[in-house]
């Protein structure tokens, strides 16, 4: 017979419409007698990106303009934004508890766009802006739980105007962000003060990195594509960046 995956009483609906799907967070107990998933909690939401820290799970849903069915014009014109839901992992259990929800401007690249540090969530996004800067802007938002809301307490924008994020990596209170259109700016951010994140330095080179990996606090490996000054991609590239002095980033090896 049919067995429900999760009790309907354990499924909640957010105040803002977040899609027709149901995101179900289930747990597996590898030491238990059965490896069957245990339904813990669900939310009526389409989950685009999921990030898990030691004690939290974050799910995100991107909200785009509502379109009319005839001429596909926005009937609620606004730039895309991302809704984030936070869940606490119950220690010693396969269950989770709902904690809070919030919203940030823009869209996320992938799960590396998020990082939890000192109880706060850092989120890197690309958003549309209506000005002469090229239509795109990038930034990192810092969110803090206040009641049942994820509230933005700090933000830094203006990273690679007119470009889009290609890779993100966090390393403690530091963040590395790569954007790209014709050249590859690597941005180093200081997030040690969550209310006043700052830009520590940047390096612009042809090509771009799609994956970043800090290796010893002073160097970062970037894996991606090699290019020229016109934006033409010429092949794959692995670069080791020297970030010991963020104000003077250099390429140690290519």
Short description:
The chain has strands at residues 11-12, 22-27, 38-44, 49-52, 56-63, 81-89, 96-105, 114-117, 120-128, 136-146, 149-156, 164-171, 174-180, 183-190, 198-206, 208-214, 219-227, 233-242, 250-253. It is an all-beta fold and 254 residues long.
Q: How do the SSEs run, as a string of H and E?
A: EEEEEEEEEEEEEEEEEEE
Strand order of the largest sheet: 4-5-6-7
Total helices: the number is 0
Number of strands: 19
Distance between the termini: 59 Å
Which oligomerization state do the chains in this entry correspond to? single chain
Rg over CA atoms, rounded to whole Å, is 20 Å
Q: Classify the helix fraction into a percent range.
A: under 10%
Rounded mean pLDDT is 85
Instruction: Supply the helix-strand structural class.
Output: mainly beta
Strand content: over 45%
Shape: globular
Main sheet specs: 4 strands, antiparallel
Please mark out the parts with pLDDT under 50 across 5 or more consecutive residues, or reply none: none
Provide a descriptive summary of the structure in words:
This protein has strands at 11-12, 22-27, 38-44, 49-52, 56-63, 81-89, 96-105, 114-117, 120-128, 136-146, 149-156, 164-171, 174-180, 183-190, 198-206, 208-214, 219-227, 233-242, 250-253. It has 254 residues and is mainly β.
